[in-house]
Design goal:
The structure is a single chain. With 344 residues, the chain is an alpha+beta fold. The chain folds into three domains: 131 residues, Beta-Lactamase (2-Layer Sandwich), CATH 3.30.450.20; 122 residues, 2-Layer Sandwich (Beta-Lactamase), CATH 3.30.450.20; 53 residues, no CATH class. 40% of the residues lie in helices and 25% in strands. It has 14 helices and 13 strands. β2 and β3 form a beta hairpin. The radius of gyration is 46 Å and the shape is rod-shaped.
Length: 344
């Protein structure tokens, strides 16, 4: 077993202690310094007491002083007491455990810019294998964190939108057919519990097949265009409802998904059926209505009317055949005086 070179410290960072000898020859102090300073991440080394032993250019920019001025100072000399105490506690935890640790720390640059740093800290060992300090690498993750928070807000908004939507919404994995999301409105329409809906595979649902929903779903997946179907089906509670189902698709990192929008249109169907019934009744009633129009040929003497066949009919007969009017007979005063003068 090769003995450690005197005065050379070991690091817990992966790969630092097992470099081939020929690479170590190439990595002379000047090259190492150039590499450290070229890095955009902050790199620094501290001793057991938290005093800085070395740092790169990125670390100088954060602290606002050159490396020569940082060496020998602690975070209490460079930052606020509150921040220095938090960092010191993290450093002690790393050195006491002998394990690397990843933490997030908000820091402020000399110009007032506040950034979130992700720091990877690891214990530094002496040739005897004893912890004698700490090496740290810190990266500005402010932009990444804000992007993550924005995505989280958008995801929360989308989930709230689905959860509170007044129409039933479900999302299925296209390849497996498994239900991934089901909102409360869908539970209300179908009478199923969230657990029951999430356990479903849409390709195995007999009710979907009977209603033509599987064909519409597969057509949406095959074409990438929305498909819709309306049908009547019984809920899990036995209530028959009319529904309108609209299918569409979207693609995510997990693959293609099928979206179902389901709306209860039972009330609308009832109104449509009532309207159709009324229209039918009115049509039938109108078919029974007989109307008279045009010029009627009436005899000036006997008042008979000539019909369409050229025959003369009594006016009562003519009108009865062409309308719903019924007649009763009496005698007006003039006719009474003319024909029955003794009665008048």
């Amino acid at each position: 077993m090769k003995a450690e070179e005197p005065g050379v410290a070991k690091s817990a960072l992966p790969g630092v202690n097992d470099r081939p000898a020929e690479i170590e020859k190439v990595l002379d102090p000047h090259l190492l310094r150039s590499m450290l300073d070229a890095a955009g991440d902050l790199i620094y080394v501290k001793d057991l007491n938290g005093a800085y032993l070395a740092c790169n250019k990125a670390s100088e920019k954060l602290v606002g002083v050159k490396e020569a001025e940082q060496v020998g100072k602690t975070d209490f000399d460079l930052f606020s007491r509150e921040f220095a105490e938090a960092v010191r506690e993290e450093d002690r935890t790393v050195m006491a455990s002998g394990r690397e640790r990843r933490v997030e720390e908000w820091v402020t640059y000399p110009d007032g810019t506040r950034v979130l740093m992700e720091s990877l800290k690891a214990p530094l060992y002496d040739p005897g294998g004893r912890v004698n300090g700490l090496v740290g690498v810190s990266r500005d993750i402010t932009a990444r964190k804000r992007a993550e928070e924005r995505l989280a807000r958008e995801r929360d908004f989308s989930e709230q939108l689905i959860r509170e939507a007044p129409v039933g919404i479900a999302v299925y994995q296209a390849e497996t057919g498994q239900c991934l999301v089901a909102n409360a409105a869908l539970c209300d329409i179908t009478g199923a519990t969230p657990a029951q809906l999430l356990a479903q595979n849409f390709r195995e649902l007999a009710s979907w097949k009977q209603a033509g929903m599987i064909d519409a779903a597969e057509a949406a997946l095959a074409s990438g265009r929305s498909q819709q179907v309306s049908a009547q089906s019984a809920t899990t509670l036995g209530r028959k409802v009319w529904f309108l189902a609209v299918f569409s698709t979207f693609r995510s990192e997990e693959g293609v998904h099928l979206i179902l929008l389901l709306k209860d249109i039972t009330d609308r169907k009832v109104v449509e059926a009532e309207r159709e019934r009324m229209v039918k009744e009115l049509t039938e009633a109108l078919a029974k209505v007989k109307t008279l129009s045009g010029l009627l040929p009436v005899c000036a003497w006997c008042k008979n009317i000539r019909n369409d066949e050229g025959y003369w009919q009594r006016i009562e007969t003519y009108l009865s055949e062409r309308s719903h009017a019924n007649f009763t007979h009496g005698m007006c005063p003039d006719c009474m005086a003319k024909h029955f003068p003794e009665g008048s």
